[in-house]
Design brief:
six-stranded antiparallel β-sheet; Thiol Ester Dehydrase, Chain A; alpha+beta
């Protein structure tokens, strides 16, 4: 549905911080489903943790936020601009249920819970092979850069 080139035309993030590889499903104003492949070649695995690589939870949250950002931008019919960006304003009700390791594919689903002017609230869930990895309610706000 949306490849990496289309994602990069909407989000301002770039490697190594871009956390969304592909969008599988998107219903503007409702929800989005995206994926992020986890590779052992990523630099964070040099220190997190040697001999027992685990994808950092904070990057799972970032993947959820970027996925939610894609939904917001597509709902509005625009992409990021050079003078404005959506930033994470809050992360609530976060739960981590299992680790994510290299070779796995993270599937992220974000759903719009509420929107008031330039503030959005999403519920996001990350899974691997149907097993819930993490859930969170994420608030994003548009800010001038």
């Amino acid at each position: 549905m949306m490849n990496i080139n289309e994602i990069q035309s909407i989000l301002p993030h770039r490697a190594p911080f871009l956390q969304v590889d592909r969008v599988l499903e998107l219903v503007p104003g409702e929800h989005i489903v995206a994926v992020r492949g986890i590779s052992i070649n990523e630099p964070m695995f040099d220190g997190h943790f040697p001999g027992n690589p685990i994808f950092p939870g904070v990057l799972i949250i970032e993947a959820m936020a970027q996925t939610a950002g894609l939904l917001a931008f597509k709902t509005l019919g625009r992409g990021a601009s050079s003078n404005k960006a959506y930033v994470v304003a809050g992360v609530d009700k976060t739960k981590f249920r299992r680790s994510v390791t290299p070779g796995e594919q993270l599937t992220i689903r974000a759903t719009i819970m509420a929107r008031k002017r330039s503030i959005w609230k999403f519920h996001a869930e990350a899974t691997v092979e149907g097993q819930t990895v993490a859930t969170a309610d994420i608030t994003c706000a548009e800010r001038d850069l």
